[in-house]
Amino acid sequence: MLHSLHVHNLSNMPDQYAHQSASTPARWAHVLLRIFAGAVLWQHGAQKLFGMFGGHASGIGFTLSGVAGPLEFIGGLLIITGLFTRPVAFILSGEMAVAYFLMHSPRAFWPVENHGEVPVLLCFAFLYIAATGAGIFSIDHLRHRNRPSSIMS
Question: Can you tell me the distance from the alpha carbon of 32 to that of 38, in angstroms, rounded to the nearest whole number?
Fold first, then answer.
């Protein structure tokens, strides 16, 4: 049975790694992946918006960097804290795919040749996080822990 995917449905799906059936090392590895992927993206947003970390500030506007900067800066913070994780990770996964295909793939086919390793890895990391949720150490977990579980036993 196919269900339509809506942002509301995406943010209310059960969090796979916050459930007690997941092993403790898997739960914490998931949290660390979320936090560090968000931190890497946040740094790229800070480069684009403020010129931090050796970047060049491009500001906000209707340019690729002007759109990507706020997405990466704000989205990275939301991923790090685990707030609205699923819909934000889904959007960021798409943004990383666009960044790869527009900025890197025209240079060469392989990511190692076109310096697109980071966008490719972040694209799939965020897609994974969108599918599995924020994990135990997140604001989303705090917001949803008192709700009845919708995971069928």
Answer: 10
> Over the Cα atoms of the chain, what is R_g?
17
Secondary structure element (H or E) that encloses residue 94, with its range: helix 85-99
Under 8 Å between Cβ of 77 and 66: no
Per-residue pLDDT tens digits for 105-139: 999 999 999 999 999 999 999 999 999 999 988 99
State whether residue 86 is helix, strand or coil: helix
Q: Is the dihedral of CA 33, 101, 109, 114 positive or negative?
A: negative
Query: What is the C-alpha separation between 89 and 83, in angstroms, rounded?
Result: 10
Domain locations along the chain: 24-144
The per-residue pLDDT for range 4-56, each reduced to its tens digit, is 455 455 556 666 666 666 788 888 999 999 999 999 999 999 998 888 888 77
